[in-house]
# Entry
Amino acid sequence: MSKPEKLLDKKGLRLDGRKLDELRPIKMEVGILANADGSAYLEQGRNKVLAAVYGPKEVHPKHLALPDRAILRCRYHMAPFSVEERKSPAPSRREIELSKVIRDALEPAVFLEYYPRTSIDIFIEILQADGGTRCAGITTAALALADAGIPMRDLVVACAAGKADGKLILDLMDLEDKYGEADVPLAMMPGINAVTLLQMDGSLTLEEFEKAIEMAMEGCRKIYEVQKEALKAKYVTVKEETEE
Ligand code: UDP
# Structure
């Protein structure tokens, strides 16, 4: 997509009609893959993300096993058709880095010490990307972990705030990410108010940075409610099925 003249219109609305502090429409579903231990699917604006979890299971190769806890592994991958210009299916440096960043954002939530000598593997597939896919990947993977029945301190949820045309904005889409002034992705466990990921691209004043963090946390708290509803929805379905 070519560079737009402006990211905000005269009324201060964004290119997709959103207000500055408005999230993209978001929906989630849990337990959609029959052959994974846990899974989830998320749509956030034009982002489409699938996450699958396997484990806790025996570690291969065996020498990676830890005597006192499970290891958490994560692969973030973009499908070749997920972006405008076909992406090579081979893992790029960016995907390797994001896999680590996402793993680190999820790890504090998981009681790894409950499962020594095992591994928990997370696979995140970006089916369609429109900015903020690391955050969408974290939100989806946390749901898939919960769906796999893995004990967690809290769900992890992520959202970015940033700056475009001089104004702070919430939940950046690709054009805002590319042509805006800053992007601040943040992940947290809202139930225990703990931040597990904070990055920044671009530049902000200290005051703007603090405001952006507050906006991103507020976005996270809203997405957290949708996450919890998605988990509950699965168990309502299970209950109905068992009562039939
Ligand atoms: N993107 C792309 N091709 C690529 C990688 C990224 O078009 O090979 C786009 C995609 O829409 C992505 C956005 O650039 O969501 C922003 O990427 P970034 O690295 O900032 O990560 P994200 O914001 O998705 O977490």
Summary: The pocket of uridine-5'-diphosphate is lined by residues 83-84, 87, 94, 129-134, 174, 177 (CB under 6 Å). Helices lie at 93-106, 133-147, 174-179, 206-243. Residues 30 and 151 are 16 Å apart (CA to CA).
